[in-house]
Amino acid sequence: MAQNIEGKVVVITGASSGLGEAAARHLAGEGAKVVLGARRKGRLEALARALSLPDGAVLQTDVTDLAQVRQLVDGAAELHGRVDVLINNAGLMPQSPLERLKIEDWDQMIDVNIKGVLYGIAAALPHMKAQKAGHFINVASVAGHKVRAGGAVYSATKHAVRVISEGLRQEVKPYNIRTTIISPGMVATELPASITEPDIAEATRQRYQGAVGADSFARCVAFAMSQPDDVDINEILYRPTSQDY
After folding, report:
1. How far apart are CA 43 and CA 244, in angstroms?
2. Is residue 162 classed as helix, strand or coil in its secondary structure?
3. What number of helices (H) and strands (E) belong to the chain?
4. Phi, psi of 184 (to 5 degrees)
């Protein structure tokens, strides 16, 4: 069993599938007390049953609504007495060339990928400051490091996650709070399903044939969490071995 995970209270957004679900399963197996939020209530409840979570450990949550994010985090504190880790995982990737003017998709990415992370920070930071301990794990992407034609807005949102996380890292040192950015490459999740343009979706489907499993992300989370309290893993960037981008 990994060190420094058992008994920790871990709140995960976007937990109904993909990276969030994989992290929930892995961390629960390591003895963490997971509290899960996502928009799909039925999927959350099924996961709660599979993990034998207590009542109140899942909550339907839209990360674009600050009140809902606060309810999720405050509920975790009420249920377990504290909040040790927040994994800001919820995200969308409806990529398209800028000239197609998919403005609704742009707005969704900004609201979920950027504002959702900020709302998670707003909800959890007061708890962590009061505890003088905590850990933010914010999910960025390889696309936050590199830009591909057709992915400008998505890359911008994931670069913003990195910038926000670095600013947070510098600001929370007085409170003994750790910050980690995890930037995955191609991982087999439902994320490409958010692409609304058929030709972009098909090209992405072809690329993602080389994707690795979501358990790869869960292991990265566990690695960052399991370090001694005086070690702060600030960024993990990983890809499938075969991925060139």
Report:
1. 34
2. helix
3. 8, 7
4. -80, 155
Is beta strand 235-238 parallel, antiparallel or unpaired with respect to 9-12?
unpaired
Query: What is the 3-state secondary structure of 145-170?
Result: CCCCCCCHHHHHHHHHHHHHHHHHHH
For residue 203, what pLDDT is reported?
A: 87
pLDDT in tens, 74-130: 999 999 999 999 999 999 999 999 999 999 999 999 999 999 999 999 999 999 999
> Architecture of domain 9-235 in CATH?
3-Layer(aba) Sandwich (3.40)
**Beta carbons within 8 Å of 20's beta carbon, 6+ residues apart:** 12, 13, 14, 36, 38, 87, 89, 90
CA distance 115 to 224: 24
| CA gap 210, 198 in Å, rounded | 20
Pair of tokens at residue 169: 């890292």
The residue count of the chain comes to 245
Of 119, 154, 208, 238, the catalytic one is 154
Question: What residue ranges do the domains of the chain occupy?
Answer: 9-235
Return the exposure string of 109-127: e unless at least 16 CB atoms fall within 10 Å of the residue's CB, then b: bbbbbbbbbbbbbebbbeb
Mean pLDDT of the chain: 96
pTM: 0.95
- 154 is known as an active-site residue: yes
